[in-house]
Amino acid sequence: MTDLNQQVKEDMDALTAQWLQHNDLKAGDLVVVGCSTSEVMGEQIGTAGSEEIAASIFEFLQDLKKQTGVHFAFQCCEHLNRALVVEREAMKINQLEEVTVIPVPSAGGSMASYAYKKMNNPVVVESVKATAGIDIGETMIGMHLKHVAVPFRFQQRFIGNARVNGAKTRPKLIGGERATYERKEVYS
């Protein structure tokens, strides 16, 4: 496991550097995180979760949070209907509705369970509309992104053995061919 932990740390270091360099994370943004620690270990999702692997990933995400001021929403597994662990502050800012459950590795997943133990004043919410997301191990985070999600492909394609993808969102374009989308055209 030591070699895998070292690989995860190297992979997360590369991924967070790429995210900071190329993505438009802003203070206050809500970022959904889906993570299968089983997939990171090279096993099928939901079969071999590891809070040790979750701890390594969480550490890098907390560093990213400090650098950007974003709020993370950690997606639970399907046994909790993909509910999310957030800090109470993020719940209030985003006007989310709290639900009653405490994620554990066997019902919620190792990543969400670990996040719940380590976050300041954690709560669980049923759904969010996040500005961006990271999906480690193909956990299907799309239901928690704003309507127009744009893939963000990292050069770092794997965390351990799990495929990784990112997403950012943009406002919907409405109005058709007569509409104007650039602010500089409207306000010049």
From TrEMBL:
Matching Gene3D superfamilies: Hypothetical protein TT1679
Source organism superkingdom: Bacteria
Pfam families: DUF436 (PF04260)
Sequence intervals crossing the membrane: none
Sequence similarity: Belongs to the UPF0340 family.
HAMAP family: UPF0340 (MF_00800)
Listed NCBIfam families: TIGR01440 family protein (TIGR01440)
Protein name: UPF0340 protein J2Z81_002960
